[in-house]
């Protein structure tokens, strides 16, 4: 089930052009928070994150080019021994799948595990994107159809 949530969040990342999208923040926080918790020897059974634009008290509308977009993130999950995991914060930067920057806190079983200004490696960036060289022929699609013919008795 958690894999489907991550897959859905990952698919939604591509739908939010430019800026800091709530789906990107949720997906990336899920990945980086899980890794950070596991580095601190927390057995994460599952973690699901949601994100929503934080407009600083209801300004409404889109931020101007000089304003910093902030996305509030809320993650809920459980450890292997059924302790509750809560990760919350305000994110000002996200690199798809690699890092989030902002103010993030994690609690496991009611005990604070971390309070950080960021998770992940922003210098690493997202994975490479394949772009075929220009001027080269593009691959074509080949379809193979196999038909099974059953003999008709008496013919």
From TrEMBL:
Annotated region (Disordered) at 50-70
The lineage's top-level taxon is Bacteria
This chain belongs to the protein called: Lipoprotein
Species annotation = Streptomyces rameus
Q: What is the lineage of its organism?
A: Bacteria, Bacillati, Actinomycetota, Actinomycetes, Kitasatosporales
């Amino acid at each position: 089930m958690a894999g489907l949530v991550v897959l859905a969040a990952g698919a939604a990342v591509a739908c939010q052009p430019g800026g800091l999208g709530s789906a990107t923040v949720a997906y990336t926080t899920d990945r980086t928070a899980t890794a950070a918790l596991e580095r601190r020897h927390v057995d994460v059974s599952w973690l699901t994150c949601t994100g929503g634009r934080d407009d600083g008290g209801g300004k409404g509308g889109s931020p101007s080019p000089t304003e910093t977009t902030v996305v509030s993130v809320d993650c809920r999950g459980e450890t292997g021994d059924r302790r509750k995991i809560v990760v919350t914060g305000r994110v000002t930067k996200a690199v798809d799948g690699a890092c989030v920057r902002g103010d993030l806190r994690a609690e496991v079983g009611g005990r604070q595990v971390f309070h950080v200004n960021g998770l992940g490696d922003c210098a690493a960036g997202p994975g490479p994107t394949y772009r075929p060289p220009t001027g080269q022929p593009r691959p074509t699609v080949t379809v193979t159809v196999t038909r099974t013919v059953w003999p008709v008795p008496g013919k």
